[in-house]
Amino acid sequence: MADKAKTSDKASQKLPLADAVKLVVKDVKKSKEITDTDFTARLIEPYQLEGKAVDQLVQEFEDNGISIVDENGEPSKLALNKQKNVEKAELEHLSAPGSRMNDPVRQYLKKIGRVALLSGDEEVALAKRIEAGDQEAKDELTNANLRLVVSIAKRYVGRGMSFLDLIQEGNMGLMKAVDKFDYRLGFKFSTYATWWIRQAITRAIADQARTIRIPVHMVETINKLIRIQRQLLQDLGRDPVPEEIGAEMNLPTKKVREILKIAQEPVSLETPIGEEDDSHLGDFIEDKDATSPEQHAASEMLKTQLAEVLDTLTDREENVLRLRFGLDDDNPRTLEEVGRVFGVTRERIRQIEAKALRKLRHPSRSNQLRDFLE
Questions:
Q1: What phi, psi does 369 have (nearest 5°)?
Q2: Which residue among 92, 122, 281, 369 has its CA within the 20 to 30 Å range from the CA of 219?
Q3: Residue ranges of region Sigma-70 factor domain-4 (predicted)?
């Protein structure tokens, strides 16, 4: 581990647990991940945590948007054990008398918690009935494994889709697994179904989680890049440069830069800024198409000066120029259109326009507008 991380370890061991947690969260906030080895070495072992205390600590990190992963970048046993304990407690709580049922997730968990799990022999018997076209057997095998979907879906919370949406997508993968399960191969159904459930969820995240969709193969490449980036951060004690990431991934630096650009998350202009939440990100972004105060002031002065100059012409000449050049509504008219307004020919309008412009070119009038051309 890098010297910087070692220094943080020593510092965190001397602090109260709450302060040590804040220090570790600060260290890994940028990468949004911490390995289970690092998590154990910096917090669990120094403070001799176990059981519910570990689960609470894992939950605190997840609440801060930080995942606890193994060395392969997958959810760690610490996180999975916490999820199992939470799910068990959740089901027990929901089964208790007087439990409120307003939360759709809780309603769903209680419903599927009533379904008994199947033994291996029961799975084979159902699979044989399914093969014979028994729809009830298909429903029974599906319902008995809905808890497996919940368990897998929880690992993908925080990736841009709600928990219920993840469960729904996982259920679709489960139904596909039920259709394709071959009991003759000797595998447990849950082992086979896990792959289909994961595939359905990961594809749904790739298709729906981002504002701008990224192809599945690119999502996998981005995840690999993030894992390597995180590992290099721990090894080097600093953010790796694209050249170093490219060397690890056997990719050109230009390609790495492209992947990093694609991996950027869109940020809403309505994102709250500051502790008061009374301002938003969009308030601080310059609108390059908007008129600056200086330009607005100059435009108003030009309008005032132009009105004074036009006031020296006859009413007909002034009105012809205003219509021809769209001075009042930014909608210039043709000679024919102006002629219809005044009830004269287009040639007559051309003559009036030419005469009015000659008057405006006289130094007594043009000098008043010349400064605005600079």
A1: -105, -10
A2: 281
A3: 309-362
